[in-house]
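Standup, Tuesday
Yesterday: got the pipeline producing structure tokens again.
Today: sanity-check two examples.
Blockers: none.

Example 1:
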Amino acid sequence: MAPPVVVVGVIGGPFGVKGWVHVNSYTEPPANLLSYEPWRLKRGDRWEIVDVEVRTHGNGLVARIEGLDDRNVAAEWRGTAIGVEAAALTAPGKDEYYWRDLQGLQVVNDSGDDLGRVDRLFSTPAHDVMAVTDDVGERLIPFVREVVVAVDQDGGRVVVAWEPDWV
């Protein structure tokens, strides 16, 4: 069985004419992506290990993927997920979480009301947000200390200071 893979970025548009591509890193800071290897690229339903040369360019990253030597071919890789084995990631610190570990957890408020499950998380300029879904719809709940009372990964739930009628 293949080891679990975590998406850590995505291939952006071409960079130059020799097959280099922009890289959109999901790591914080983005340059942390340079420390993970080997990279795996999602092609169809498979993760393929690739040899890459990666370097910083301005505030971003660019990469040359072995076998891509042409701008037009590189353009076809735009949107391709970049993954690494989950075991390559460092353990999160106290009160830190990988988003993948929060997805699927039950969300309840501090009164015990069931608000749904964490469907996904995303960043905004102000803070991270949990998209919590139930059979009625979706709630967007800020993932900030003032709202998130507790995260109990072993118990499979997140406790929040949030009322059921708050959308």
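Example 2:
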Amino acid sequence: MTISILDIDIGKNSCSVVGVDDKGAVIVRRTMRRQTLIEFVGKMPACIIAMEACCGAHHLGRLFAARGHEVRLMSPEYVRPYIKAQKNDDRDAEGIAEAASRPTMRFVDLKSEEQLDIQSLHRVRSRLVAQRTTLINQIRAILLERGLIFAAGRRKLEVALDVLPGDQRATLSPRMHQLIVELRNEWKVLDKHLKVILRAPEQVLELDHRVIEIWSMTTRRHG
């Protein structure tokens, strides 16, 4: 019996594996840890390996592709309609098998390590920007409750906070004044982290100029 498509449902500690032949009949059904899975796939004849494009899939995909297998990654939202009722890991793997065999299925390109580095930097940057926005909104709300209204814009608020101690309108209690100082210092720390992230592609990654240009265009507004 020859496995035509090997379908893997990736878990945190173990993976559910379902192998089907060229007629779609299940001939292998196993649960194994990742290292065991890598060794198992390494001994198999070349076949199609299908997985959802989730965390860890690109790493495994590169390992399997290096061993001569055809890797097909699919967005989870495209796989979901093929999963039967009473969801579990085995049925998830069967659903992946059925989805991978569809001629109209759209597959996700296997990302290189450099592409994943850029993606990780984008995600960290997005989290830091969201934290900074939340912090700025909180500072504005605290000051607004005390009758202090500042012009819209991050830069304008920065300038206003730097001169706040000398502002005659600022009748803040010592406790609130200290709180604003601490929040402003927290804001500066976030800005420092963001500057490091924005410089990362040029200083840490060995990327071509086009990738760096795209990174710069997408992050310039948050500099």
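Quick observation on example 2: Residues 113-222 form one domain. The chain has eight helices and five strands.
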